[in-house]
């Protein structure tokens, strides 16, 4: 059980500090993942950015993901869920449209504060506050892998063991603190799992950008 996202991120950072990382970049999935990512980036001395992906929701069950879409428009579908729920193509097309519109809204909002970071040749740590179905993470990983990073590490506090096994195929390494068999929701493993709003994401991105600029300025001024 974690106290909150910050506590979980510090524990993750302790596990990652033994890794040899090349020009590390933490890519966090908004919104809850940005809280985790901000602490993680600070603790391991990495740059922070976001990767935008949204889950496709099951009809009448918004917490159940049947797939996900990335900011590049890449679509990942959980075909098992699709078959069990009997989803129509029309429903999936409309749900993809809704979620892609939300990605566009967030992209405009967050990229005004934090322009997209370069990925190629870097150690990329992809994080969220947890993994349930894994759909959003898989959609994000497809986009990241296409940008030719040196390596991709998925780092999350808690994950469904079954879904984590599927995610391993999309990355070079996985760091996960808890993989409980009795898993039904990410929030059950946090004492405080308060919803994160856009304003908090903006504040975290702005603070990290200011910190990075300060470090760069000191480095350039050094004799």
**What's the story with the biggest beta sheet?**
5 strands, parallel
The unreliable regions are 214-222
Helix content: 40-55%
Let me know the number of strands: 8
Number of domains: 1
Separation of the first and last Cα atoms: 47 Å
Task: Indicate the CATH class.
Answer: Alpha Beta
Helix/strand/pairing category = alpha/beta
What amount of the residues lies in strands? Answer: 15-25%
> Any idea what the CATH architecture is?
3-Layer(aba) Sandwich
Shape: globular
- Average predicted confidence as pLDDT: 90
CATH topology assignment: Rossmann fold
Task: Report the total helices.
Answer: 7
The radius of gyration is 17 Å
General description of the model:
The protein is of the alpha/beta class. The chain has one domain: Rossmann fold, CATH 3.40.50.2020. Helix content is 43%, strand content 21%. It contains seven helices and eight strands; from the N terminus they run αβαββββααβαβαβα. The strands form two sheets. A five-stranded parallel sheet has the order 2-1-6-7-8, sandwiched between helices. The longest helix has 24 residues, at 198-221. The chain is globular and about 45 Å long. The N and C termini lie far apart (47 Å). The model is unreliable at 214-222 (pLDDT under 50).
């Amino acid at each position: 059980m974690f106290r909150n996202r910050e506590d979980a991120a510090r524990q993750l950072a302790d596990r990652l500090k033994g890794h040899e990382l090349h020009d590390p970049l933490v890519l966090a999935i908004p919104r809850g993942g940005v809280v985790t990512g901000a602490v993680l980036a600070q603790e391991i001395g990495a740059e922070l950015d976001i990767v935008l992906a949204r889950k496709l929701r099951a009809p009448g069950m918004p917490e159940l993901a049947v797939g996900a879409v990335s900011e590049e428009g890449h679509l990942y579908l959980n075909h098992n869920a699709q078959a069990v729920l009997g989803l129509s193509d029309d429903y999936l097309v409309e749900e993809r449209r809704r979620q892609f519109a939300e990605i566009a809204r967030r992209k405009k909002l967050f990229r005004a504060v934090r322009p997209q970071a370069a990925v190629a040749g870097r150690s990329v740590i992809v994080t969220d506050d947890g993994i349930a179905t894994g759909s959003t993470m898989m959609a994000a990983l497809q986009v990241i892998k296409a940008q030719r990073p040196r390596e991709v590490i998925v780092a999350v506090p808690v994950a469904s063991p079954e879904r984590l096994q599927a995610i391993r195929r999309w990355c070079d390494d996985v760091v996960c603190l808890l993989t409980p068999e009795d898993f039904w929701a990410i929030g059950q493993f946090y004492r405080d799992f308060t919803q994160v709003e856009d304003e908090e994401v903006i504040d975290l991105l702005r603070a990290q950008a200011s910190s990075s600029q300060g470090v760069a300025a000191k480095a350039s001024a050094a004799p």
